[in-house]
Design goal:
3 domains, mainly alpha, two-stranded antiparallel sheet, 62% helix, 479 residues, four-stranded antiparallel β-sheet, 12 helices
Length: 479
């Protein structure tokens, strides 16, 4: 990462703010005291920012913000750039008004020339050329007005960007991340490394502190909840940004403590099973949707084919009647002739009868196939609803295992001996269905009942059979 040195001089022109050389960087300064930092975050930013390097006429300078160093453009350079853009805006505004006056003047002139030419007051051969020239100048003036107006809008945008204090901006980002907590820091990757960063905002020690706060709050929130009817909701929270996952713990602490490794292994095993379970149901639902779509497309195709057949029969009969009418017209061309009128009336009656017959047939065809389509969509909806219910039920069945795992994880976190949770009753069928399956270590192994299966929900719909194991209610803790 290259950052301009403090010896750079100011430029004489207006510079675009969104250039890499003007981006702010944040780097590690001193190791923070997280407890003290909790108090520092309560103070206004004006009391937490100190200029430590800002040479005269330098484009960049450094400030200490809490426990980090912010390298950014200096206030003097930002003021200089705002002045440059204000000059450009003023010049563009002056030119804009000149071109507005020009456009108005030449538009009026073009109108006068057109009026004179139309009244034949002047008959000079140069008059049409004068009109064209005046019109062109008016059009060019309008184009230049738009151009200058664009410059004014750009100047407004750039002045606004240069006006914003980059150190205050980073301070506000730190405050917001501290307020949101560790999941926000993790999601936005705000942890600093050894090198200056464009996106990092927090010392690793502070990130560790935020992780520990989150771990405690996560466990307290879920373990304090008494869930009977809300197991599915509880499981959703358990799986969302769980601090005992490998990714979150390694990011927060920088490593996995030795005594937490068995916890991570058990959580990874459980999460893999739950993910496989969810993915399996998604595949089932996708198959249901695809089959329903094929049925609907088939019904739609058949409906259109039958309607097209009726249209062809109607049009063919009308064409035949028209041919017969035209033969009579050839023999009796006069519209007042009785036989001519009878032929016309007879044709119109046949045409109306054929169109009415088509309308009746089309209504019956539409009703038949629309009913089949609605039935297919209803069956799809009911199958998806059933699968969602089964999925929620199976996930909720893991509540007890997940709840116990979280209790044991909290105990291990508090430096108590970790007693592994036996997840084997939830895995017996996985070795047959999943490539990722790895049996639990020997100390987990216990005899497990054979899994049962859900009844085939697709029976009667012409769908393939999808048996899926119901999770076992048995729950065994290794003593």
């Amino acid at each position: 990462m290259s950052v301009n040195s403090a010896t750079d001089t100011f430029t004489d022109s207006a510079e675009l703010f969104d250039q890499e050389k003007y981006w702010s960087t944040v780097s590690i300064s001193i190791e923070p005291d997280p407890i003290q930092m909790e108090e520092e975050f309560k103070k206004p930013l004006s009391e937490r920012i100190f200029v430590i390097q800002s040479p005269p006429n330098s484009m960049r300078g450094k400030c200490r913000l809490d426990d980090v160093i912010v390298d950014s453009v200096t206030d003097a350079y930002r003021i200089h750039q705002k002045n440059q853009w204000n000059i450009l805006k003023t010049e563009a505004g002056s030119k804009k008004w000149v071109w507005i006056a020009t456009a108005i003047g030449f538009t009026i002139a073009a109108s006068i020339v057109e009026a004179v030419t139309g009244a034949h007051i002047a008959t000079s051969p140069l008059t049409p050329m004068l009109f064209v020239g005046v019109t062109i100048v008016a059009i060019v003036s309008l184009f230049l007005i738009v151009k200058e107006n664009s410059k004014i809008n750009q100047a407004h945008t750039q002045i606004s960007k240069w006006d914003a204090n980059p150190v205050l901006k980073i301070g506000k980002e730190r405050d917001e991340a501290h307020k949101q907590g560790f999941p926000y820091i993790y999601t936005h990757n705000l942890k600093l490394g050894q090198e200056p960063s464009y996106i990092g905002r927090f010392h690793p020690k502070q990130v560790e502190h935020e992780y520990k706060k989150y771990f405690k709050a996560f466990c307290e929130t879920l373990l304090d909840q008494s869930c009977n009817a809300c197991k599915s909701s509880w499981m959703g929270k358990f799986r969302s940004f769980n601090p005992i996952s490998y990714d979150l713990m390694s990011y927060g602490l920088g490593h996995i403590p030795e005594h937490m490794k068995p916890v991570i292994e058990d959580y990874t095993r459980l999460e893999s099973f739950l993910s496989d379970l969810s993915d399996s149901y998604e595949r089932l639902k996708s198959s249901v949707r695809d089959t329903a779509k094929e049925r609907v497309n088939g019904y739609t195709k058949s409906k259109n084919e039958e309607l097209e057949s009726c249209v062809q029969a109607r049009d063919s009969a009308i064409a035949t009647a028209k041919t017969e009418r035209d033969k009579i017209f050839e023999r009796h061309p006069l519209p007042t002739d009785r036989r001519h009128k009878e032929a016309e009336d007879n044709y119109n009656a046949i045409k109306k009868a054929l169109e009415d017959n088509y309308t009746r047939k089309a209504a019956l065809i539409n009703k038949k196939y629309d009913g089949k389509i609605q039935e297919a969509e209803k069956e799809r909806h009911e199958q998806i609803k059933t699968l969602n219910g089964q999925k929620s039920h199976q996930l909720a069945n893991n509540y007890k295992a997940a709840h116990e795992l979280l209790i044991r994880a909290k105990q291990a976190w508090d430096n108590k001996d970790y007693q592994p949770v036996n997840l084997q009753p939830y895995f017996p069928y996985q070795s047959l269905y999943s490539d990722w399956y790895q049996p639990q270590p020997g100390y987990y192994q216990q005899p497990s009942p054979q899994p049962t299966h859900y009844p085939n929900i697709n029976q009667g719909y012409g769908m393939p059979t999808y048996g899926y194991p119901v999770q076992q209610q048995a729950y065994v803790i290794q003593a």
